[in-house]
Structures are given as C-alpha cells and as structure tokens.
C-alpha cells in the first residue's frame, strides 16, 4: 500500500480534487439538465436500446432510482468518471516513465479544460472519455509488454464503450488506421486482434440487434441531427472548438501531439498520433460536433506532460519554465472554470458569460447567440413547469383526474414533469420524442389533456379548440434565462371522439416507424 501511494499519490489527490469540485461547486439555483431527465426516465424502462442513446446510461439511471433520485447520486456518477479519467491520465504518464511534474501538468491539463462541463452532467459523454482513456492505457501496456491480454482488454472496453455511446467507434477506427501506418501493423497477423474485435462485437451485439429489430432508429436520429443541428456547423467552427475546449492546456496537448508524431522518444507511441488525426478527419468529414473529439485529448495531455518534462529537465528550466507553464495554465483556467461550472446564480452567470461571447460560449445549436450557454439554459425552468402542471392537475376533481393524460412537446419537458411530479401522483407523461414513443399507450380513453407546448399558437389551433369543450392556458414558463421560457401549459377539458382517435392513431404512427 505504501509503495502504491508513493507511486500514485499525486494523481489520486488530483482526482479527488476534481471529484470534490464537481460535487461542491454547483450553485443550488440550477436544476438538472434537459438530457438528464430523459436518461433518468429511461432508468424506469430498461432495455437494450433507446432512440437517442445505447443502454448504459439507463442502467445508471436505474441505480439513481434505487437511491431515490438523490441529486447527489445523479451528480456523483459523471464526477466520478471524470476523477477516474484524471487517474488514468496519470497512469499513462507513469507507464511512459513520466515523473511528478509530468503527472501534475498532464492531470492539470484535464482539470482545467472543457471536461469541467462534461463531468458536470449525467450523460454518456463522461463515460465515453473514460473508456477511451483506459483503452489508451491498455494499448500503451501492450506496446511495452506485447502481452495479448491488453488487446483483449481493449476489445472488452470497446464493446462496453459502444453500449454507452456510439462515438466510441472512433477509437477502433483510429487504431486500425494507426496500425496500418506504424510498425505495429504486425498485429494484423496475430489472432488476438481479431479475438478482441470479436469480443467487442459480441458485447455490442444486444444493442445492435435492438437497432435491427427497431429498424435502426440511430440512422433516423443522425438524419434528424444533420437537418436540425449539424447543418449550422462548419470546419472552421469545429477547429475553433478543438482550440477552445482545451485552451488552458493548449501547449500541453499540442506538445503531446508533436511527441507522438515527430519526437524520437515518441516513436513507439506514434499510433496515438494517427488515432488523433484520424478522429479529427472523420469528424470534419462527417460534420461532427466539436465535443465528439474530447475522448482523444487525454492521451495527448499524458504524452504532453512526459514530453514537456523531458524538455525542461535542466535545473534552470525546472525552476523557471515549469512554474511559468503552471501559472499560465491556472490563470487561463479561472475563466474556463467559471464558464464550465455554474458556480454563480443564473443572472450572474449570464453577465459573466457575456464577456466571452466571442469564444462561442453563448452560441446554441440554432447558430445564434443567447444570454446563457445552451447547457445552462437547459438547467432552468423545469421546477416551475412541473409546479404549474401539478396545479392544473390538482384543479380537477378525483373523477376528472382518473380520465386525464399529460402530453409534452419534447423529451426535456416530459422527463422533467416525470421527475419532479413523481411525488404528486401524476399520470404517466406522454411525449412524441425520444423513447417516450415506446412508453406511450397505443390505445387510450380520456376526457382531459394537460398539454405542455413551446408553440403558444396551440391555444388557438382548431385541433384543440374544435375537439375539446374548453381549452385554457393555466400557466407559462416565466424564467427569462430558461431555454423553455414562454412554454405554456394548457388544460383541455371534454375531449370528443375525434381527438381521442387522432391521438391514438398518431401514437401508433410514431411507433410504427420503429
């Protein structure tokens, strides 16, 4: 134990620091994120696949359910995955014979980068980066030992990673290209590579079969993503994102890339340089979002730490250049910290983030700038929304409640009302988005509908006014910083047969696609 702590003590301390930071720094005024509500809802409907993501996040959502949906537990998972990633970066440095400074500067590179936001949210992204980083560690171990077990371990992790997020496929794609372009291509002649790929395929197979039996909804999701979000992206925006996301550690990860591609001492690890370049090229060609590449940077931070330690090994550089590098990184990290973690109240965060508008932090998926970063705007208004839905429901008598359904326009609304309204005996929330399509009843009878909608004109649309005896707006989201600001809650009473048939038919049409 003493030897272990002596060897790993620094990286353990830095991992614990990041863990505590994420659990303690968030201002309580902020709620959960839009996506988090969906993933928690999926925990109530365990399956091998969902419309938006593979199944792993739903498993963790189920664990959160067992703990009573404690916000601490919900926050703990991504924070823990971030802390483990820091630890694995340190382990890669140690494996590459890096000393304490290399460990420190590499781990600090991660702690001061955009991963601060990534490890804040209960999403598959945190685990995606962790799986990627562990695969790099096992690949380094293989390079040093030629032991086939490390290739097998990579196969297991790739399979598990694909069950978490499909961007994990970028690692094996990059690795295969890297093998072709380096002396490690000899691995193609050994069966262990194919055994590892087979293991990855077998682990991933249940989700692949789920996709097959549901007509590959991932392809529909990708098409929708291209039409609604990715069309606003271009190569310049993507490259800018690569620089901004890890800006405080820019000189570290660039040094790491140079180490992999050009340094003599980095020759055994050249495969990682090709993995990085392959990932960037694939994402540029596919018009991917900038954060899709975040899994590729921990390996550059690790090698950057090792390389910079080598370059500054002389006494005069140890006591001059190294402190300057550390000071510069910490100085740049302060605004990154405040942009990535909502430490302040929403109003103060909006004022602070406005200073960094030119960096694109206020740019949303619609290509426009707004008052808050989109992730933060997606963490407001949900309790207000649910309270107004509950008020509408409680305005009905017991007989009316028994014949009332709740319908939300998007998965964030549906997930939030399900999450916060679970203690108020609300009926199951229905939605036309994400996997709620599978959970909606195929056929139902009802008299009343509580509608949560972003379209304020719904109040006057014939679909509602001509098919219900009474349509009343009972509330709206008033938080001006919330992305859901202006969303209205309608109480529709006295449904006729036409609207009942319309909704049942619509539910069946949505389900029939899958």
Structural topology:
Elements: H1 2-24, H2 34-42, H3 56-66, H4 71-95, H5 100-111, H6 115-118, H7 124-145, H8 148-162, H9 170-180, H10 191-213, H11 217-228, H12 235-245, H13 250-261, H14 270-285, H15 297-311, H16 315-318, H17 321-340, H18 346-353, H19 374-377, H20 382-394, H21 398-401, E1 404-408, H22 411-420, E2 429-431, H23 436-439, E3 448-453, H24 462-465, E4 468-476, E5 488-495, H25 497-512
Parallel strand pairs: 1-2, 1-3
Antiparallel strand pairs: 3-5, 4-5
Low-confidence stretches: none
Multimeric state of these chains?
Answer: single chain
> Main sheet, how many strands, which sense, barrel?
5 strands, mixed
Indicate the structural class: alpha/beta
Structure annotation, total helices:
25
SSE string? HHHHHHHHHHHHHHHHHHHHHEHEHEHEEH
- Beta-strand content bin: 5-15%
Please list the strands of the largest sheet in the order they lie side by side. 2-1-3-5-4
- Overall domain count: 2
What is the mean pLDDT?
Answer: 94
* β-strand number: 5
* Distance from first to last alpha carbon: 53 Å
Shape: globular
**Integer-rounded radius of gyration:** 25 Å
Approximate helicity band: 55-70%
